[in-house]
Amino acid sequence: MSARSPLARIRRYPSAVAGLAIILFLVGVAVYTVVAIPHAQAMADWRGGDQWRMNPANASPVWTNRLFGGNAPPTLTISSDGAEVESAVFEGGRQLRIPLAFDFAYDDFPSEMTLLLSVLGTDRPAFVQATWERPDGSEVRLGAHRIAGEDRIAISRNRALEGRLGQVPHIGLFTDQTGPGRPAVLPGTYRLTLEAVLFDPGAELRAELVAFGRVHGLAGTDHLRRDLMLALLWGTPVALAFGLLAAVGTTVTTLVIAAAGVWFGGLVDATIQRLTEVTMILPVLPVLVMVGTLYSTSIWLMLGVVIALGIFSASIKMYRAMLLPLRNAPYIEAARAYGASDMRIILRYMIPRILPVLIPAFVTLIPTYVFLEASLAVLGLGDPVLPTWGKILNDAQAQGALYNGFYYWVVAPAALLMLTGLGFALFGFALDRIFNPRLRSA
Amino acid sequence: MAMLSPGRDRRLRELSAFGVFVVRRVVALVLTVMVGVYLTIVVANMGGQVDELRLIQIRADVSEAVRGDPGIAPADRAALIEQQVALEVERLNLDQPFLWRSIDYLRRAMLLDLGRAEQMTSDAGSRQVSAIIVERLPATLLLFGTANVLVFVVSILVALGLSRRYGSGLDRTVVALAPTSAAPGWFYGIFLILVFAFVVPVFPPGGMVAVPPPESPLAYALSVLRHMVLPVLAIFISSIFVSIYSWRTFFLIHSSEDYVEMARAKGLPDRMIERRYILRPTLPPIVTSFLLMLIGLWSGAIILEQVFNWPGLGTLLFQAIGFRDTPVIIAGVVIFAYLLAVTVFLLDFLYAALDPRVRLGPDGGGR
Amino acid sequence: MSAPLLAVEDLSLHYRTEAGVLKALDRVSFELDRGEALVFLGESGCGKTSLARALLRLLPRNLAEYSGRVSLGGTDLMALSDERFRREIRWSRVSIVMQAAMNALNPVVRVGEQVAEPLTIHAGTPRAAAMERAARALTRVGVSADFMDRYPFELSGGMRQRVVLAMALITEPELVILDEPTSALDLLTQAGIMNVLKRIKRESGTSFILITHDVGTSSELADHVALMYAGQIVERSPARQFFRTPAHPYGEALMASVPRLRDRTEPQPLEGTPPPLIDPPAGCRFAPRCARRFAPCDRPPPEARLDDGRRALCWLHGGAA
């Protein structure tokens, strides 16, 4: 039966194929991400700031909304560039009339409304008056402003306006209901008319009305308006790299140490055993917590500690139990007889014997480390600059995502974590059955 | 010639051999814990934090004592404080090299004299770290103890049953579900909360007992039970399938042992074969793997408790992180190490009690 | 002549493997009288161990076929349900000493306990009485009763084998099957065990089926010999006749390959290997290796009965029987 190549045997197990498919998919995403969104840019973007200012905050993904039959609004930007501006020149300046019109037929209100104004070509402040018109013809005065340079007018935070409307502006301006009960969106064409006076004939006024939506993109946004897709994508290579490096680091070193202990015996073996026991009683997560709190939470430091703790883990006892009987095996004696060095015996004779147990254990170990990294991030001890899945969960927890109904914020990274875990676990368990004949179906 | 019957004589010798084994293990474990705690101290002190802490502690203690003494004039206070501090420093060897002090700290940690917290207090208002910890310990033990016992018992029973029905639909389902344990308990916890506390509000989303806590002990106990359901379920789901899977695989491999076939040939009933010929001989190595699972569970306690707002050691540690309260963090690690050491010992003990080859040594109980 | 103790007719046991159906036992038939020792002789892989399993209904998971008629002292064994078989036949009437007893004893149960087990389970004997009988059974096979309290790993291989034998005899079954009882032991221990068996056969009249490849030890105990080859019984003869003049060419080749103490002739090894049991050849299965093969051997041979009680599956001793 061992004449059949491992690849052929893998194909006979549907769980192995499924696991492998998931792994390859994740690797593909990781590679794509690293190539398409370079590291430096990703870090800079993730740190937040101005580049996200046109995104709504805490918006859910578009597809989840549409999936459940909803029709929530995306972010709408109405610019004066495309509007029909009426201009009238007078002595010392210009008078402008800018209509910003748009159709709104969604079944939910915008999350926020902001008016961006820029006065170009002069440093003399301009005077702007805004009027809101609903489809049913009703008008609301939004107030007058003095604008110099660039200015943001947060319409939705206008307390006075809220008082006048009886609701927050981004709801009140879109409905005609004033009584009790949930207000409904009044569908139709809305118009924000700006009447501006510029005190310089050559000056220009540029206006942008932003009605922030409640849905955004494929993954939604977080409280800092960051597109979650960035973190979801970039979390993939980080998770895979951490998991793999940690698993490889620990497995290889554990193996060599176990073999060395068995082979050299005596004091070496006893020392290794005691070291193993010490490491076994040191709880991994609390120690990481301690290191993270007292020193730094850089992911490399965490990785280092994880590997250090993992090298002398309990697996050593298991490998030792498997290697011990080999020590006096005839073929090892024969190797010594012909003068093989200790290293050679360890590498060429002992280690290959435990590979069938080692490989599945290695594969199943990877998700443990992926979740460990996520655990650290959820605790707030994640790497401060890297966008990882655990970090998303941490933010979500801190912002009370579940209490506010932002389920996507929690489900997306959790689902990815689960997928990664499943992929490797499925593959690993199937490998276990392939390599250990006694576990196969008879 | 009066002589003990050979049987009783043997049993006595076996018992003493077992006793020797137990004592040896305890000694080894104590040493191990010492090394572990010492390592913890060294790591924690590399930033020089521990010493600074103690200096602050001393200063605070002395200042309090001096200020609280009405017989000392305010003008004299500053000088007196400095004097006392210097005395304390000398008494506590803080002017000694680090090696001495670390050993001293080790001694105090082993005796569970864990010092005072920087900012946290116990519910009773004490700053003593040991008091804070003792307050939280039972909650952790209750939750994890229950969950562990549940997983252990259920997985043995199911696995034994499965080893008879190898290849059946139920068997294949369990094998297929084994990879679900890739995700740790807190992970499932989040989903459970999402579904059972928010989408379909059946269970409370966190905490250990309803607020305000019920008066009668029965109602209190019931409330605690109700709050325990989701976290225990989370731990259960994340460990049960792989647990059943590994026990069942083990039983399977051992069902093909010669003595099992012999037992079948002897016409022993199936139940007896399961119990005496499959379960008993394989308990020792399975107990070891159970130990590993336990250790993993303990380690994940921090997050699980935090997710469920369970007031145990885990949340304590989490809060300590938030406060950067170093003595509590260190104490937390030390306590966890103790708990693990106790677990290791218990299971080693069980191992020896179950497998005569271990407790009697390769030569038997003496001839 | 009294009725035979065990009458087996057309017993078949087939395994299902990845390569196909393996016919370990192919319509095997034989009889065993009370107080008689029947030796099954043959190379490894000829189906001997499968025979032991088949008689005790110790069936594997990958079973493809189990059929035939087995009658023990008048009881139709194949007709019994699994539960009745377990309770009434196993150990009460038929017991077995397995190959390589090294591992046949439960490592975590004391020796005395294990030997007494069949009594407490099958006969419901109270524990004290059972332990006493166990002690006696042990002494009977040459193991001191001091070892009752020991664990199996504390005993040597030879002693463990004796313990297993004691365990097999304790319920005083009508038939004891021994599968290679001495193959893993040194010569002296082998001799010891064979002596024990001979004594017990003499004293209690227990019937034995001894399965082995060792011609030497089998000759000590056997009343009759059944020679097995490729899943079939190719010769069935009284012991003395078989060892002197085997009827089947395979038997001849076997005896020729055994070194003799007082004989100068060189032992002649038999060339070749037995045929695979998955798709056995249609005609005589020994034919490819037979020095005396001739034309009819391409067809399945009939059972030839000779006057002195020898029976052989061979064309050489006559046409259709």
List the keywords.
heterotrimer; B: 14 helices; globular; C: 321 residues; Rossmann fold; eight-stranded mixed beta sheet; 12 strands
What would your notes on this structure say?
Chain A folds into 2 domains: 6-47 and 224-439, Orthogonal Bundle (MetI-like fold); 73-212, Jelly Rolls, CATH 2.60.120. Helices cover 52% and strands 16% of the residues of chain A. Chain A contains 16 helices and 9 strands. Chain A has helices at 6-11, 14-36, 39-46, 62-67, 159-165, 169-172, 228-264, 266-281, 284-294, 299-311, 315-323, 330-337, 342-378, 389-398, 401-404, 407-435; strands at residues 76-79, 86-90, 93-104, 112-120, 126-133, 139-147, 150-154, 188-198, 204-212. In chain A, the strands form 2 sheets. Chain A has a 5-stranded antiparallel β-sheet with strand order 2-3-8-5-6, with no helix packed on it. A 4-stranded antiparallel β-sheet of chain A has the order 1-9-4-7, with no helix packed on it. In chain A, strand 2 (86-90) and strand 3 (93-104) form a beta hairpin. Chain B is mostly helical. Chain B is globular and about 95 Å long. By secondary structure, chain C is of the alpha/beta class. Chain C has a domain at 6-93 and 173-233: P-loop containing nucleotide triphosphate hydrolases (Rossmann fold), CATH 3.40.50.300. Chain C is built from 9 helices and 12 strands. In chain C, the strands form 2 sheets. Chain C has an 8-stranded mixed β-sheet, with helices on both faces. In chain C, strands 2-1-4-5 form a 4-stranded antiparallel β-sheet, covered by helices on one side. The chains are: A alpha+beta (442), B mainly alpha (367), C alpha/beta (321). Chains in contact: A-B, B-C. The B-C interface holds B 6-7, 10-11, 166-167, 257-259, 261-269, 272, 276-277, 280-281, 354-357, 360, 363-365 and C 56, 58, 61, 86-87, 89-92, 95-96, 98, 100, 102-109, 117-118, 121-122, 146, 148-151, 153-154, 164, 167.
